Amino acid sequence: xxxxIYDRVPRWVLAIGPVAILIAVFGVLYLxxxxxxxxxxEEASTLxxxxxxTIIGAIAGIIPVAIGMLWFPFIRDLDPRYLHAFLALAGGVxxxxxxxxxxxxxxxxxxxxxxxxxxxxxxxxxxxxAVTAVVGVGGTFAVMYAASEWRQRKAAASEKSxxxxxxxxxxxxxxxSIGEGLAIGVAYIHGDASLLMLLVLAFVMHNVMEGPxxxxxxxxxxxxxxxxHFAAMGIIAGxxxxxxxxxxxxxxxxxxxxxxxxxxIGAILQVLIEVADLIRFDAEDVFTRTNTATFCxxxxxxxxxxxVLVDVLLEGWLIPV
Length: 321
Hints:
The chain is globular, with a radius of gyration of 20 Å. Helix content is 76%, strand content 2%. The chain is an all-alpha fold. The chain has one domain (51-314).
């Protein structure tokens, strides 16, 4: 992402280029229907299943995040107040993901946790799910908060680094991506090609917004970080879809899903605090009208891409299920 390269590119190209690439990827997926025949899944070897889920996870996770990160040059040239608005937009995206995963944790996976016996004592599934959720959310938040405080004390004399926040954002999104992979893995192992295609298309649209969410923090730094950082953050944010796919195909455990979602929620809560601190570093007021509006736009946009898009696809407008 050399300055010499993108300085010669018109701003309108920087703005709409990722959209054109996304449309092309979406069109190729829809027209080719690469997951149209899963009849051989039951006879497939473990290695074949892992390899296929790796490819699917990369398509649904890493590629759309990379597409979204292409907006970095455009975001970086924004006026500081608009950059703060973009950070608030990223906060809205994260907030929606946290709300959505809380709903999944409580109403989908939490209620399906089976009763267990621990040390001779019967423990109800709902109790086990609740304890797991509290420990996952609280423990993750506490660990990330302590790490943040340590980092800030260590770098108290220097300017707050947007790159460090970007890595935390990527980590939080990556933890969330495990949940997406769980759904993909279950659909694949059950041989449900229509549902699998639905999930991949929905997650491609969903995850493309994670790219600018990650790089928004980097954009406020004066220097452009080396390309390896963008590659690393893209893999951290989107790569766990692959891990989730593996877990979903072999370890179909509701309590595992509850733990994954709880960890992601705890991470997101801490990252939201980091994003607010990053805005506050440059401006006295975090909750300006512009920032509040873009936060709401980010939340609403993810609702449209996730819930509305999925509903449209399920109704058979694009994919007959």
